[in-house]
Amino acid sequence: MTGIVINVEVRQHTGTGGARQTRREGFVPGILYGGEKGPVAIAASAKDLLKAIRSGKFLAHMVDLHHSGESQPVIPRDVQWDPVTDLPVHFDLYRVDEASVISVEVPVHFLNQDTCPGIKKGGTLNVVSHTVALDVPAGKIPEELVIDLAGRDIGDVIHISAVRMPDGARPSIRDRDFTVATLSGRGGKQEDATEEA
């Protein structure tokens, strides 16, 4: 869990007019859906929602939804932004429990770029996938996938099968061993290294 709590109220007025009225009152309209219950129109304080979003752990992480003294885990699925003010104008939340397996995009980060043999020889790290879709229990969503470049050389191709998965997680795409990143050189060096690989 991220420790983020979103306090919401149930909206009585829906539609465009209701959403405008909600925003005038300092709230952001949203929808809570998923699970066995039907969709519910909700609203959260614009200030609190913006603070949660700016924490960097809001989207695609499980957070606590509080309403009338009750709490339930949810996954924020989408935030829509005003193109002029760059403030949130609508958000979607999805009901889950900690054991629910969901698909989320997780960022990929690389370690030891400064000591990577391929990069030290003048090679370039080409990142094919900056994020990877994972099927993971909602209560165990990882912050990132980490790939260690120590010992990697020009011509190396890093496939998803070489990436260490967190407990309970697996790639959403399982019909092929897709490329996450490559180490390429310049001109003939790259071609020679690819042939050797």
TrEMBL record:
<dbReference type="InterPro" id="IPR029751">
    <property type="entry name" value="Ribosomal_L25_dom"/>
</dbReference>
<dbReference type="InterPro" id="IPR011035">
    <property type="entry name" value="Ribosomal_bL25/Gln-tRNA_synth"/>
</dbReference>
<feature type="domain" description="Large ribosomal subunit protein bL25 L25">
    <location>
        <begin position="6"/>
        <end position="93"/>
    </location>
</feature>
<feature type="domain" description="Large ribosomal subunit protein bL25 beta">
    <location>
        <begin position="102"/>
        <end position="184"/>
    </location>
</feature>
<dbReference type="InterPro" id="IPR020057">
    <property type="entry name" value="Ribosomal_bL25_b-dom"/>
</dbReference>
<dbReference type="InterPro" id="IPR020056">
    <property type="entry name" value="Rbsml_bL25/Gln-tRNA_synth_N"/>
</dbReference>
<dbReference type="Pfam" id="PF01386">
    <property type="entry name" value="Ribosomal_L25p"/>
</dbReference>
<protein>
    <recommendedName>
        <fullName>Large ribosomal subunit protein bL25</fullName>
    </recommendedName>
</protein>
<dbReference type="Pfam" id="PF14693">
    <property type="entry name" value="Ribosomal_TL5_C"/>
</dbReference>
<keyword id="KW-0699">rRNA-binding</keyword>
<keyword id="KW-0694">RNA-binding</keyword>
<keyword id="KW-0689">Ribosomal protein</keyword>
<dbReference type="InterPro" id="IPR001021">
    <property type="entry name" value="Ribosomal_bL25_long"/>
</dbReference>
<comment type="subunit">
    <text>Part of the 50S ribosomal subunit; part of the 5S rRNA/L5/L18/L25 subcomplex. Contacts the 5S rRNA. Binds to the 5S rRNA independently of L5 and L18.</text>
</comment>
<dbReference type="InterPro" id="IPR020930">
    <property type="entry name" value="Ribosomal_uL5_bac-type"/>
</dbReference>
<keyword id="KW-0687">Ribonucleoprotein</keyword>
<dbReference type="GO" id="GO:0005840">
    <property type="term" value="C:ribosome"/>
</dbReference>
<dbReference type="InterPro" id="IPR037121">
    <property type="entry name" value="Ribosomal_bL25_C"/>
</dbReference>
<comment type="similarity">
    <text>Belongs to the bacterial ribosomal protein bL25 family. CTC subfamily.</text>
</comment>
<comment type="function">
    <text>This is one of the proteins that binds to the 5S RNA in the ribosome where it forms part of the central protuberance.</text>
</comment>
